[in-house]
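Section 5.1 Outputs to date
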Amino acid sequence: MSAKDKLDNKAEDLAGQAKEKLGKATGDEETKNEGKADQTKSNLKDAGEKVKDAFRD
């Protein structure tokens, strides 16, 4: 996994965490759920990159 991919995935995860916390603080379920979805998407991308790395080695 390239450093850029790791950085992009981490940034997306952090943005998702912030969005989820904002949704919790304001009582906005839609924003909270979008944040969780962003985090899940980031985690799936990260897992996919790890699988690709495992097959490269």
